[in-house]
Design goal:
Chain lengths: ~240, ~220
């Protein structure tokens, strides 16, 4: 399997010199699903933002080390170039939704990729069907519940058909049935060769992951089976940082 | 004798949208601990906002302590009911944690000593003593959730509504908040807890209500 997203000796900070992430080395292959776990505030979102190039391009922060997207140094990509192959869904869907109708939200990405109208319409129909949100297409995102907004933020990113998908704790507001649906979608994406990175607190969601990585005190390591089993392991994973 | 919170044949629809809630009849007593569950978009948050009078029903009525909820001023309603938003940051505005907790007390004719005493009590109950002087936005997610609860409970409301208070918390921090909610319950404060987590609802609440397609099952 070829690696589509690689981090080498990655350090990330929000304040100069105060590294949230230290010496992160990992790679994500096409068709691979990787989960990231760790305590609230351990740097999962920071990692997602750095890998998507949002730090330092749109959010102030410092990144050292290398990130490669499809073999090319991420520093050489513009944000639109990144967006054409990497999609990210944020923790808080409200930061992602800004258009008057759900249909517009789903069309926005493909329109910016300059896809033909018919193709955009077909994608919207397909994604809405898969995500079970067809009846919401005409709704105003502001009038939807938190969970529905999360679903739309996800659908809007899936409409871009990214090769790399980063999901930053997207299940927090989803009901159990929608979580199951998302799990099926992730497995389907995997079959189609999409690389998926999921930062998650919901360990059941990670049943579909090929590997699970733990972030602890800014460093990354592979999760041992015992980390996810029983109070002792979970205390090890989540024990760091401020409670 | 009517219950503390009474919803009679309540309906709600958005001006240009579809029906969100239909024919909701519900009675809640002050010290009850109730879980409100249901799929995304089933109307959980809308129902909680109707109870508070933040939204007006398009049909039926909501009574609070025997009177229509809209007959109370917003301040009077705030003295009876506390509401913890889905995103706790939305309710912070004070420069530090202690002031955030004490803010509502300043308008209750309490002496500065009494306020200080109550703030200290809440800081201890919610394990926030070491952050008394911290800017609320610099707290961790778990600390923010605890601060939101502390600020809401400080003026001793009769009943609180919590909209997904466990959102964004990991296993350990959920456990911590759960232990604190058990303490709140033991103090005799009733609450309505909105959550998707069935196990947590079963532990923290004596009764579960489920919304489906805008109706209570």
């Amino acid at each position: 399997m070829s690696s589509v997203l690689v981090a080498e000796g990655l350090f990330v900070s929000w304040q100069p010199g105060d590294w949230v992430l230290r010496d992160i080395n990992f790679s994500l292959a096409a068709g691979e699903v990787v989960g990231i776990i760790g305590s609230s505030g351990c740097g999962k979102s920071t990692l997602c933002l750095a890998l998507a190039g949002i730090i330092p391009r749109q959010s102030p922060g410092q990144v050292e080390g290398k990130i490669f997207l499809e073999g090319r140094d991420l520093a050489q990509f513009s944000l639109p170039q990144i967006a054409s192959c990497l999609g990210i869904v944020f923790q808080d869907p409200e930061t992602q939704l800004f258009l008057p109708r759900v249909r517009n939200e789903l069309a926005f990405g493909p329109e910016n990729l300059c896809l033909p109208r018919e193709e955009i319409a077909a994608r919207i129909q397909r994604i809405a069907e898969e995500m079970g949100c067809r009846e919401l297409l005409a709704a105003n995102p502001n009038e939807l519940s938190g969970g529905q907004q999360q679903l739309i933020a996800l659908a809007a990113v899936l409409a871009l058909e990214p090769k790399v998908l980063i999901l930053d704790e997207v299940t927090a507001q989803l009901d159990p049935r929608t979580c199951q649906r998302l799990q099926a979608i992730v497995l389907d994406l995997r079959q189609r060769g999409v690389a998926v990175l999921m930062a998650e607190h919901n360990l059941q969601m990670l049943a579909c992951a090929d590997r699970i990585l733990v972030l602890r005190e800014g460093r990354m390591e592979e999760a041992a089976a015992s980390d996810l089993d029983g109070e002792e392991g979970l205390s090890r994973v989540y024990g760091g940082g401020r409670v | 004798m009517t219950a503390y919170i009474n919803l009679e044949q309540v309906n709600f629809r958005w001006p240009q949208g579809g029906q969100v809630l239909s024919e909701i009849n519900l009675s809640i007593e002050k010290n009850q601990t109730i879980a409100l569950m249901g799929a995304n978009g089933s109307g959980k948050t809308t129902l909680s906002k109707l109870i508070l009078g933040l939204l007006k029903p398009t049909g039926g009525r909501v009574l609070l302590a025997g009177r229509p909820v809209e007959s109370y001023s917003l301040a009077a309603r705030g003295r009876l009911l506390g509401y913890v938003f889905q995103n706790p940051e939305r309710q912070f505005f004070a420069p530090d944690v202690a002031e955030e907790i004490g803010f509502a007390l300043k308008y209750r004719n309490l002496s500065p000593e009494k306020i200080q005493e109550r703030v200290a009590e809440m800081l201890a109950l919610f394990e926030l003593e070491q952050y008394a002087a911290t800017f609320p936005f610099n707290l961790s997610q778990g600390e923010k959730q605890r601060l939101a609860l502390a600020a809401i409970l400080a003026p001793r409301p009769d009943f609180i509504i919590m909209d997904e208070p466990f959102l964004g918390l990991d296993w350990l921090r959920k456990q911590r908040l759960q232990a604190i909610l058990e303490r709140v319950r033991n103090e005799g404060v009733g609450y309505l807890l909105i959550s998707h987590d069935q196990a947590l609802c079963a532990r923290l609440c004596s009764q579960t209500l489920t919304l489906e397609g805008g109706r209570l099952l």
